[in-house]
Design a protein that fits this description.
It is a single chain. This protein has about 160 residues and is α+β, with helices and mostly antiparallel strands. It has one domain. About 25% of the residues lie in helices and about 30% in strands. The protein has five helices and eight strands; from the N terminus they run βααββββαβββαα. The chain is globular. The protein starts with a strand and ends with a helix.
Length: about 160
């Protein structure tokens, strides 16, 4: 029970030739080099998971999303990615870099990225308390909401 993007939205905004020249994408991370060599800044992304508890069950629905973070945080994540103690790392602040169709705009939402044990996708916590995605993360969703997601995403 999960849906998500294979890459951050910025990846899809690049042409094939730009991707080949200035971007790298793996299943866990993405780096996009700036177009401008002087004042431009490279963009760094990690893949994470927003978990929504399902009401009256022990199950969760998962959005697979991309989070834009600072270069320093990205390099630290790379450094500890395979360490058994990586879940002890502090949360990383960032911004959602995935558009989720069932919600008002999600790209740019402030989030925190919490690293979990090796082999588990980092957890993403939505910081904007007023956004519907944050409310669903806190309060959970129903099976009918999961069906609504499926209908929206399949059409």
């Amino acid at each position: 029970m999960s849906y998500g993007a294979d890459a951050p939205i910025a990846w899809y905004e690049l042409s094939e030739s730009e991707r080949a020249r200035r971007a790298e994408l793996t299943s866990d991370g993405c780096v996009i080099a700036s177009r401008r060599w002087f004042f431009g800044r490279d963009s760094f992304f990690l893949r994470g998971q927003i978990l929504l508890p399902l009401a009256e069950t022990n199950e969760t629905f998962s959005w697979l999303v991309w989070v834009q973070i600072d270069e320093r945080d990205f390099l630290r994540a790379e450094e500890v990615w395979l360490e058994e103690t990586r879940e002890n790392e502090p949360e990383t602040e960032g911004f959602l870099a995935t558009s989720l169709a069932p919600y008002p705009e999600t790209v740019g939402l402030p989030v925190a990225l919490r690293t979990r044990p090796v082999g588990e996708i980092p957890l993403v916590l939505v910081r904007d308390e007023h956004h519907p995605l944050s409310a669903e993360q806190r309060n959970g969703i129903t099976w009918s909401r999961v069906q609504e997601f499926a209908e929206i995403l399949m059409h």
